[in-house]
Amino acid sequence: MRTVTSLPHPVRRDDHVWIPLSDGTRLSARVWRPVSSDDEPVPAILEFIPYRLNDLTFQRDSIHHPYLAGHGYAGVRVDLRGSGNSDGVLADEYLEQELRDGEEVLAWLAEQPWCDGSTAMMGISWGGFNALQIAARRPPSLKAIATLSSTDDRYADDVHYMGGCLLSDNLSWASTMFAYNSCPPDPAVVGSRWRDMWWERLEHCEPWLVEWLRHQRRDDYWRHGSVCEDYSAVGCPVLAVSGWADGYSNSVFRLLRNLDVPRKGLIGPWSHKYPHLGKPGPAIGFLQELVRWWDHWLRGVDNGVMDEPMLCIWMQESAKPATAYEQRPGRWIGEPSWPSPNIEHTDFVLQRNRLAKEPVPDDGVRGVREEGEPLTIESPLSVGQFAGKWCSYNAPPDLPYDQREEDGGSLVFDTDVLTERHEILGSPVVHLELSCDRPNAMVTVRLSDVSPEGRATRVSYGLLNLTHRDGHDRPEPLEPHRPYRVDVPLNGVAQAFPAGHRVRIAVSTSYWPLAWPPPEPVRLTVFASRSSVTLPVRPMRDGEQSLAPFGEPEGAPPTPVRRLQPGDSRWTVSRDLVDYRSALEVVKDLGVLHFDDIDLDVRRRADERYDWVADDFESVRGTVDWTMRFTRGEWDVATVTHTTLSCTPTEFVVHARLDAYEGEQRVFSRNWHTSVPRDHV
């Protein structure tokens, strides 16, 4: 990324800004704005997240907020209530309190003498979520938003559930927030009251995993904050952004389809990162694109930003399977609208080991009768150990590896060798006629690009809890051995399949540890001749030109950070053939960083373990341990959290522990042990 040291406007930074709320709470903020804004007010752009602006996000913030300020805006970073140096307690995601706080912050910003009364919101992940949710509340000063890696449907596309199946990211993310919520404010900012503030957080810190497990179906808990409940509530222009390695690309398509405000979509090859920091690459000059977006909607500049394609996407070329990529080959293409008139939905029929556009005629040897025989599968629990994360956080190696070993425990259907190049754009859908021998089951469908050498690169996938076949809000047990017709939508994707390759569909009954398995092993029968796949084919058009590439990534100079101890990143799959115990172990050690500006050392480390024994569905277990430590001179504080999720056929069982330390002395300790009934999961 190119560092820009000369910007159109000189920038000042206002540290330790306190934003008062109506209930007496104060939120911690940092503001970057043009020096000239004292006399010439500017629009304010808010990023509102819980990730500690004083340390954990300071370096990232210093790259993009001063850049926006240097182009004539006030970049404002605010910590949510109960996070960083802000007062209060953070009790859960996207609560009504958080959204009301956000509205108050926008109103406060609009009234500042350096603000011209116009505001906007931007953010990735949490900040993208609440930008979209607050836009649906129509605060009067809010003129536009940029929402990245977020969703319009909190049940359909988030770390909690996918297709009605419980994701292991539900445990992983809950454990992350368990650790973050236990961290103290900085005494250099809040003074002597830091310990009282910390103690309040510790006493009210709860493992959010328990609450999320209490809502295993799409109920009012998930409807809150899901703008898909009423798209018309969103009243300002929306720029929606994601990446193919991210977990949130589906919402970009839905927002473009359903919003009735000016909108644009952008999907690149990236993981859960801002596109100017995007990996896998190519990263793009996203901050330049943001400036164009804000210039048009906050300043009324006629810069043609809305004359460009509604949807700009990276069409990925074929690549060997790998758990990490520096770059994904491909090209930028544009669609004038979504749904696009350029997509042709093409059906392929499932046959024994084959995908065919038409059923194979009866040739007297292996005719339609054989092709139509039911196919059965009872996948081992090991199917899924090479699935990678539900959402890549660019914490290599967290992308899916070669799917051939997964395919060994699956039903596999391949096209003939392609004689010409094919491209798809959108969400493939697999239509299955099936039956099960148990009342509770899941099905996983994977779409792969198979090279002439046989390597299988996963392109997309979908999960469906079969008890949710009629809706995620009304699960019903299956009647064993009764045939059902179900549709399994796969994640949206843009992918090219070269001539000489094959397209593969693989069907399995488990995908652990990406998703929690059902209560007991399941044998699935697929009636292949009555099942099919719909692919969103984007035909090659004569004379079509790729979009011009984006500018080079650039940003303001990052604040100085020194690495005192190196980090570590590991992803280990193991199997003991004596006791048949298998495990996936993930290490995310960020080492020790020293923040020069505030003379602070910060250590972060997470260890995740997902293990099981043979095909014992009651043995599956996930464990996550976090350590957070902050040191400055004699001030030395740490929190250590531990969360374990296990199960019985009828319950999920959560054990959690929180310990807090000053120096080597433990000053706080609490344990939780809770069981939650399984609700058709």
UniProtKB/TrEMBL annotation:
Pfam families (UniProt xref): Peptidase_S15, PepX_C
The chain positions of domain Xaa-Pro dipeptidyl-peptidase C-terminal read 291-549
Positions of the region Disordered?
541-562
Q: Which GO terms describe its molecular function?
A: dipeptidyl-peptidase activity
Instruction: Name the UniProt key words of this record, in alphabetical order.
Output: Hydrolase
Q: Which InterPro entries match?
A: AB_hydrolase_fold (IPR029058), CocE/Ser_esterase (IPR005674), Galactose-bd-like_sf (IPR008979), Xaa-Pro-like_dom (IPR000383), Xaa-Pro_dipept_C (IPR013736), Xaa-Pro_dipeptidyl-ppase/CocE (IPR050585)
Entry's NCBIfam families? CocE_NonD
**PANTHER family reported for this sequence:** COCE_NOND FAMILY, PUTATIVE (AFU_ORTHOLOGUE AFUA_7G00600)-RELATED, PEPTIDASE S9 PROLYL OLIGOPEPTIDASE
Protein's name according to its UniProt entry: Hydrolase, CocE/NonD family
Q: What is the lineage of its organism?
A: Bacteria, Bacillati, Actinomycetota, Actinomycetes, Pseudonocardiales
